[in-house]
Design brief:
The chain is of the alpha/beta class. Helix content is 50%, strand content 10%. The strands form 2 sheets. Strands 1, 2, 3, 4, 5 and 6 form a 6-stranded mixed beta sheet that branches. A two-stranded antiparallel ribbon has the order 7-8. The longest helix is centred in the middle third of the chain and has 29 residues, at 141-169. The chain is elongated and about 90 Å long.
Length: 427
C-alpha cells in the first residue's frame, strides 16, 4: 500500500464514519477534509475537524504508520506545527509536539472496505507497461480528454520552472533568457548542456554587439564550444579562428571546456557545427526575438521567425575542410516544431505566469497545430487506443507516463481514480 491510496481515501472520504474516535478515545467528526496539497508540507490544508466538543481548523497529515512522522523528520519542519489530525493506516505510537501535547490520530485500518483495498491492490499488481493497461480503453473519452488538458498544463508548468530560474539568473532579462533557452534547444539531447554552457559563457550582450557580423557570431559560438581548436586548411575556417582569437579577448571568454560537444550517432543535419551556425544566422537576422514571439498568434507566424539559412561556406560543409553538395540548410519544420513544443511554449508559459497572465488556451491551441511526436511511448499508448492527434495530446501522454505511471501515482491520476471508483461500484 502507498500513501497516495490513503490520500484518495481521505480526499473522497472512502471510509466508515460510524463511531469515529481518535486513538486516544475522543469522539471525532469531520466537518471538512481540507484541500489536497501537492507541494511540500502537510497533505491537506485548512481542514475542519471536531474532536470532542472542540472545533479545530488546520492541516491534516497522512502516513501509512504514525511513526513515519519521525521517519520523515516532520518534527524538525515548522510547516507541520499546525497539523490538527494525523491520519494513518496503522497506529504504532504517539507523536509529541514541542509543548509535549500529542497530535490526535485517526487510524483507518478496519474502516476502509476490503473491496476497495482489493481493487487498489489489483490495480497496482497488474503492471506490464502501465498499471491500468488492460482497463484504460474503458475510460470515457471525455474524462481522458479533460485529464490530458490538465497533464499538458502540468508539463508546461514544470518546464516553465526552469525558464523562470534562468530568467532570475539573467537578471530579469527576457531576451537574454530566450537566447540561452534557444541555444540549449538547438543542441537537442546530445548537445543541450554544451550549447547552454556556450550561451552562458558568451552572454547575450556579446550577441547584440556582434549581431551585424555573422562571421563574428559563428566564431563566438563555434570557438566557445572548442570547435575551432585544430589546424584547418580552408581559409574561411582560418578566418573564424582569427576572429575568435580577437573576440575571446574582447569579451573575456574562457576557453576552458565544461562539457564536450558530441557528433557520435548524429545525422549530419544535427551536427553541432550546423546547429551552431544556424543559431548564429538566426541572431544575425536580428538579436531581438522576444517581442516577435509575443506578437505571434499562431504556429505559422512562429515558424516565420525561424526562417533563414546559413552562410555560404556552411551551405557546402557539415564540418570544416570537407566540402559536400550545396544545401541551404534551413531549419526544417519538424525542428521548428520541436523548438515550439519544448522551448517556446514553456518560455511563454513562464513569461505569462511572471506577469500574472493566463494564456493556457492560446498555448494549447499552438500545440494542437503541431503534429504529435513519434516515439516509443506514444506508439505504446496508440496500441492501447489512446492515439495522439497532435503535440498537445502527445505531450500530455508523455507527462502521464513519466510523472504518473512510472511513479505509481494512480491515485493522483483521474484515470486511476475513475477505474478504482468503477470497480468499487461494480463490486
Amino acid at each position: 500500500m502507498k500513501e497516495d491510496f490513503l490520500h484518495y481515501v481521505w480526499k473522497f472520504q472512502k471510509f466508515n464514519h460510524q463511531n469515529l474516535f481518535t486513538t486516544s478515545g475522543e469522539p471525532l467528526s469531520i466537518v471538512n477534509q481540507g484541500f489536497y496539497l501537492k507541494s511540500s508540507g502537510p497533505d491537506f490544508f485548512n481542514a475542519k475537524i471536531r474532536i470532542g466538543q472542540q472545533l479545530w481548523v488546520g492541516n491534516v497529515e497522512i502516513h501509512l504508520k504514525s511513526s513515519d512522522w519521525y521517519l520523515h523528520r516532520h518534527e524538525q519542519d515548522a510547516k507541520y506545527k499546525n497539523v490538527i489530525l494525523h491520519v494513518v493506516w496503522h497506529y504504532d505510537y504517539d507523536i509529541f509536539l514541542e509543548n509535549n501535547a500529542t497530535i490526535p490520530v485517526l487510524e483507518l485500518q478496519g474502516r476502509v472496505s476490503a473491496t476497495l483495498v482489493h481493487s487498489y491492490q489489483n490495480l497496482l499488481q497488474s503492471k506490464t507497461w502501465i498499471y491500468c493497461e488492460k482497463l484504460i480503453s474503458s475510460v470515457p473519452v471525455e474524462l481522458v480528454h479533460t485529464f490530458l488538458e490538465r497533464l499538458f498544463i502540468e508539463r508546461a508548468e514544470r518546464k516553465a520552472m526552469s525558464i523562470t530560474e534562468l530568467f532570475r539568473s539573467q537578471n530579469g532579462d527576457w531576451e537574454a533568457t530566450l537566447f540561452v533557452a534557444l541555444a540549449k534547444a538547438f543542441g537537442l539531447n546530445s548537445n543541450a548542456i554544451a550549447f547552454e554552457q556556450m550561451a552562458q559563457r558568451v552572454g547575450f550582450k556579446a550577441v547584440i554587439k556582434e549581431s551585424a557580423n555573422l562571421i563574428g557570431l559563428e566564431a563566438l559560438f563555434l570557438g566557445s564550444c572548442q570547435l575551432l581548436e585544430a589546424e584547418h586548411q580552408d581559409y574561411y575556417v582560418q578566418q573564424l579562428q582569427a576572429e575568435f582569437g580577437f573576440l575571446k579577448i574582447k569579451y573575456q571568454i574562457s576557453t576552458e571546456l565544461l562539457h564536450p560537444v558530441e557528433f557520435f550517432k548524429l545525422r549530419p543535419e544535427n551536427f553541432p557545427t550546423i546547429r551552431l551556425v544556424q543559431l548564429a544566422a538566426f541572431y544575425h537576422q536580428s538579436p531581438y526575438k522576444f517581442e516577435k514571439l509575443l506578437q505571434a498568434t499562431n504556429l505559422k507566424q512562429l515558424s516565420q521567425i525561424f526562417q533563414g539559412g546559413v552562410s555560404a561556406y556552411w551551405q557546402t560543409h557539415y564540418i570544416p575542410d570537407k566540402a559536400t553538395r550545396a544545401s541551404p540548410k534551413h531549419l526544417s519544420q519538424s525542428f521548428v516544431d520541436l523548438l515550439v513544443i519544448n522551448t517556446i511554449i514553456p518560455f511563454l508559459f513562464a513569461y505569462y505566469n511572471e506577469n500574472g497572465q493566463t494564456r493556457s488556451d492560446f498555448l494549447i491551441d499552438l500545440a494542437v497545430e503541431i503534429k504529435p511526436e513519434n516515439n516509443t511511448i506514444i506508439k505504446r499508448f496508440s496500441d492501447l487506443d489512446l492515439k495522439a492527434k497532435s503535440a498537445f495530446e502527445s505531450q500530455a501522454l508523455l507527462e502521464l507516463k513519466q510523472q504518473y505511471c512510472e511513479k505509481g501515482r494512480c491515485m493522483n491520476c483521474s484515470i486511476g481514480v475513475h477505474l478504482l471508483s468503477k470497480s468499487e461500484k461494480s463490486a
